[in-house]
């Protein structure tokens, strides 16, 4: 720390502001504007950090300018969004959350960190921890789903994976938990819209994953673009200083989202860049990503006494401390190795995680695993390797991605393929030729859904159905199929409201975007080589009108009662989701019984599980709590634990779940998902 104090004492204002500036290169476009990275600005110390550059060569070259040609030789933070993989692209986070497996979540982050550091990076803008209950919002794809407990376990696993036990090590990167906070609650699901909520909702639902991230030692956090109750997060003194830094004890770096400080003018809370810069600095922001507000606005803010030099020094110190903790002063070239790319091991992990992220939503008449060999593979997502990466495919190469068509053919199936329609056009001319393939096929596999960029950032949708003419294709295939089994594979960054498609299909597999090994992972499940274990980490609506829809609702004074008109319901759709949180079928047939609670602190909740099916499979079980008379109304279900058990046919086992003792009387629920009809319960 002495070195840092000495360094700060030597720094000019311009050099200090350079450390508080992060500029984007153009290896990926993740924001509204790009300015060419000026090597002279790095040489002069005016830019101290970069994002969206990767590769050992380019990063070492740019780091060399900072370290060997600038006056103070301060190494740069080099960040990139390896949200679900760097070169090896894993399933999107919403899909990976559905593994309900912290060890897997950590393993993919660990591998992503190895590839990021191989590419010379020392920071990644991940994990995204925004609880998401509105599938109209495209960034639900990047989230761990609707539940704060899942988001908290996910946060800890990801931060362990990215930062490892030795942050200065050659394979570790600084994680950056984002987007603080409640970005998932944008008004009407529309991207970048405002958020408004009670303090209770904020603390119960949206804060917990960030609390977990801080407890796990995350070294950077990114405030959201959005305003919460009228105050933009980038300038939110109460939430950034009092709550995040004060109450939660976060002492790391706050890096803004892309261009967010300058956008305080659009929010209407700042009259010019100097005011915007002052607001952000006083809120505790340390690094200005891509708005140049600190570099251009803080000198004027100092002149106007809007900020003090001590506040600038505090931010500079936090940035330099992070660089020191990353080992950048010891060896700025520690990270970076040539030929970073997918390996047999990374592919094997991507294939395993991919298969385990698939959610078998429906399996009528046990249509899956496929018994047939002659398959008509129809739909615009069948031969679409590039789409499999999802909206944050990052540095994943299109040529590395395995399509469904390739995966099924490699599995030795006799495939006849036609796209039928494009993903999102109204051209139906390809439907007729596609139907011809159905004639002599044993099974029809329909690959439908969204393009990768129809979810993710700046990708909200007001409707949750199939895009373009895909429903026309599906209807035509169902008509033509006449008794043949139609298996639907859905690709999307969000749950889709497709009740009629589901009712007409024999089987439905939610594939989300499974990553670069998509085709092989899907073939493994379709052929029965792998029994599906994925569960949905978010409720699936029947209609967009139900949104936001989630299991943790409060009961209200008139909970739904089919016998009483004056209770909570819609006149045109059921209250329940199409598929409940946690839903996902396997190739087994599980029965739960004998729920019991062993006293102690914590309580040990046990349930017996039997696989009555003919195939080995893995069951996931959830433990919910409903707390009674807690003074304020409590959600009808609060998720407190989850566990898994793999059982051979006719094998029995017991799952033990740990439950912190509840305040007062409560009801314990245990089951395979959040649908009340599937839960065992016990009063405690
Ligand atoms: C984007 C995203 C953020 C990302 C950042 C850098 O606008 O909002 O999630 O980390 O810019 O790419």
Report on this model:
It is a single chain. With 684 residues, this protein is of the alpha/beta class. It has three domains: 2-325, TIM Barrel, CATH 3.20.20.300; 344-546, Rossmann fold, CATH 3.40.50; 590-683, Sandwich (Immunoglobulin-like). It is built from 20 helices and 23 strands. The strands form six sheets. A six-stranded mixed β-sheet has the order 11-16-15-14-12-13, sandwiched between helices. α6 (102-118) runs parallel beside α7 (148-163) and α12 (273-282) crosses α13. The radius of gyration is 26 Å and the shape is globular. The mean pLDDT is 97. Bound molecules: alpha-D-glucopyranose. The site of alpha-D-glucopyranose has 9 residues, from loops.
């Amino acid at each position: 720390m002495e070195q840092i104090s000495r360094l700060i004492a030597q720094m000019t204002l311009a050099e200090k502001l350079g450390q508080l500036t992060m500029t984007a290169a153009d290896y990926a476009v993740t924001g509204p504007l790009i300015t060419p990275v000026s090597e002279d600005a790095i040489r002069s110390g005016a830019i101290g950090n970069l994002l969206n550059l990767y590769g050992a060569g380019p990063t070492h070259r740019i780091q060399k300018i900072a370290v060997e040609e600038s006056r103070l030789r301060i190494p740069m933070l080099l960040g990139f969004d390896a949200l679900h993989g760097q070169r090896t692209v894993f399933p999107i986070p919403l899909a990976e959350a559905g593994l309900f497996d912290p060890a897997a979540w950590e393993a993919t982050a660990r591998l992503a960190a190895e590839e990021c550091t191989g590419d010379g990076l020392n920071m990644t803008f991940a994990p995204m921890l925004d609880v998401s209950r509105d599938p109209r919002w495209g960034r639900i794809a990047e989230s761990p789903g609707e539940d704060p407990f899942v988001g908290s376990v996910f946060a800890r696993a990801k931060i362990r994976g990215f930062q490892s036990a030795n942050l200065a090590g050659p394979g570790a990167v600084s994680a950056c938990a984002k987007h603080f906070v409640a970005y998932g609650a944008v008004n009407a699901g529309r991207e970048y819209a405002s958020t408004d909520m009670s303090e209770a909702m904020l603390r119960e639902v949206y804060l917990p994953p960030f609390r977990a991230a801080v407890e796990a030692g995350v070294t950077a956090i990114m405030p959201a673009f959005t305003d919460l109750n009228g105050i933009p997060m980038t300038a939110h003194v109460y939430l950034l200083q009092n709550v995040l830094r004060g109450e939660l004890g976060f002492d790391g770096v706050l890096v803004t989202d892309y261009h967010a400080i300058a956008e305080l003018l659009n929010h209407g809370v700042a009259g010019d860049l100097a005011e915007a810069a002052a607001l952000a600095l006083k809120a505790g922001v340390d690094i200005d990503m891509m708005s140049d507000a600190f570099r251009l606005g803080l000198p004027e803010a100092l002149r106007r006494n809007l900020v003090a030099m001590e506040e600038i020094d505090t931010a500079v110190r936090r940035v330099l401390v992070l660089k020191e903790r990353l080992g950048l002063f010891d060896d700025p070239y520690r990270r970076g190795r040539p030929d970073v790319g997918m390996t047999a091991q990374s592919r094997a992990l991507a294939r395993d995680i991919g298969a385990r992220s698939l959610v078998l939503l429906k399996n009528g008449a046990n249509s899956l695993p496929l018994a047939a060999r002659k398959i008509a593979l129809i739909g615009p997502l069948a031969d679409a390797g590039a789409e499999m990466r999802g909206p944050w495919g990052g540095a994943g190469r299109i040529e590395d991605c395995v399509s469904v068509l390739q995966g099924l053919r490699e599995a030795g199936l006799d495939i006849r393929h036609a796209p039928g329609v494009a993903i999102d056009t109204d051209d139906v001319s390809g439907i007729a030729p596609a139907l011809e393939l159905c004639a002599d096929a044993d099974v029809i596999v329909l690959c439908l859904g969204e393009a990768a960029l129809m979810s993710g950032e700046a990708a909200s949708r007001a409707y949750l159905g199939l895009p373009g003419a895909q429903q026309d294709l599906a209807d035509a295939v169902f008509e033509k199929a006449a008794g043949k089994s139609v298996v639907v594979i859905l690709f999307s960054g969000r749950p889709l409201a497709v009740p009629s498609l589901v009712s007409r299909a024999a089987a439905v597999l939610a594939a989300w975007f499974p990553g670069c090994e998509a085709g092989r992972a899907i073939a493994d499940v379709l052929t029965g080589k792998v029994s599906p274990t994925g569960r949905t980490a978010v409720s699936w609506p029947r209609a967009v009108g139900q949104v936001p829809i989630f299991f943790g609702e409060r009961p209200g004074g008139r909970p739904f009662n089919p016998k009483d008109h004056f209770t909570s319901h819609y006149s045109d759709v059921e209250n329940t989701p199409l598929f409940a949180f946690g839903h996902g079928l396997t190739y087994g047939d599980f029965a739960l019984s004998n729920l019991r609670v062993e006293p102690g602190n914590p309580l040990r909740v046990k349930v017996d599980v039997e696989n009555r099916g003919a195939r080995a499979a893995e069951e996931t079980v959830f433990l919910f709590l409903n707390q009674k008379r807690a003074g304020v109304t409590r959600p009808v279900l609060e998720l407190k634990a989850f566990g898994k058990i793999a059982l051979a046919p006719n094998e029995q086992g017991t799952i033990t779940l740990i439950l912190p003792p509840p305040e007062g009387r409560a009801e314990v629920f245990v089951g395979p998902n959040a649908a009340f009809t599937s839960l065992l319960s016990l009063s405690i």
